[in-house]
Amino acid sequence: MPETADHRHHLLALEGLAGDELVSLLDQARRFHTAAGSDPPTSLLAGRAVANLFFEDSTRTRCSFTIAAKRLGALTIDLTGAGSSLSKGESLLDTARTIEAMGIDVMVIRSRACGTPAMIADAVRCAVINAGDGRHEHPTQGLLDLYTLRECWGDFAGRTIAIVGDIANSRVARSNIHGLTTLGTEVLLVGPPALVPRSLERIALGPGRVSVSHDLDAVLPRVDAIMMLRVQFERLVGGAIADDYRALYGLTAQRAERLRPDVPVLHPGPMNRGVEIDSEVADDPQRSVILRQVANGVALRMAVLARSVGAS
Asked: How far apart are CA 69 and CA 48, in angstroms?
C-alpha cells in the first residue's frame, strides 16, 4: 500500500532544503556508491513500487531512476504521455490518481510545465519526486552535480564555480544555484544578457553568493569548476541566439587551456557539441567529469528514493 501522508518525503526542489539535508543525501549516495562495487543489489525497497511518469523526453534521468529503483529491489513501471490516457484527454491529476490506486509508493514526475510535481504531490498520498519541471527545478540533477563536485573538491565552502550558458531557461542551473549557495559556494552565472539576466543575482538563499558576468574569458582564471549548459532551443522565445555564441561562450579547447589543471568540466547533458562545448573538451579524460555525473546519478537517485519512503 502507498505510504500515508505522514510518512512520505517529497523532493520537489532544492530551494529551501537545509544544508544538513543536502549533506545527508550526499552521504547516503556515497554509501550506495561504495557498496555497488562489491555487494549485490540491496532489497531496501523490496515490496515497494516506483512509477516513472515522464511527460517530457529524457534519457539520463529516466533510465537512472529505473536502474536506481531496481537496485533497491523495487518494482518499477514507466509511463510516457504518448503511451497513456493523456493522449485521450485524461488530466494529469486523474492519471496520477489512477496510477497511485494501483499501489504505488513513489511517483517520479517529469513535465514541461512548472509546478506539475507539486500539484500532483498535493493530490496524492504517495511520495513525489520532481524529475524536472519546465524552467523551475531539476533537484536530483542538482544533487548529483553536488555529489560529483564533492568528489572533486572535498568541501564546498570557499569554492567558486562558473555555470555558463542558457541560465534563464535552465532548471538545472536553478537547482545547482540553490544547492551550491546553501553549502557556501560562490556561483558565477555567465552568458549573453538575454540568457543571463542580472535579476538572477538575487535568488541565492544560503551563505554562498551569486554574481552575473557576460564575459567568459574574464572568469576562467578564478574558477574551481565550470559547468556548461545546453542552449535550450526548444524553450527559447522570441528569436534565436547569436551566430557567434560559440566564439563568445563556448568552452573551446583553447579556453579550456586557460583553466587550472585541477578544474573539472561538467555538463548535465544532452550536449550540443561544437556549440557550448567542443568534443575535445567534453571527452578529455583528465578534465571532463561528464560521464562521471551520469554514473553518480544512479547512486544519488537511490538515496533520494530511499529517503522518499523513510527507508534510508
From this structure: 9
Q: Are 50 and 108 in contact (CB under 8 A)?
A: yes
Contacts of 126 by beta carbon, 8 Å cutoff, 6+ apart: 2, 3, 8, 100, 104, 105, 106, 107
Q: Which amino acid is it at 81?
A: G
Question: What are the structural domains of the chain?
Answer: 19-137+294-308 (3.40.50.1370), 139-293 (3.40.50.1370)
* Residue 189, H or E segment: strand 186-190
pLDDT, tens digit, for every residue of 26-53? 999 999 998 876 565 689 999 999 999 9
Which residue's entry shows cell 556515497? 30
pLDDT band with cut points at 50, 70 and 90 for residue 234: low
Give the span between the Cα atoms of 66 and 76, in whole angstroms: 7
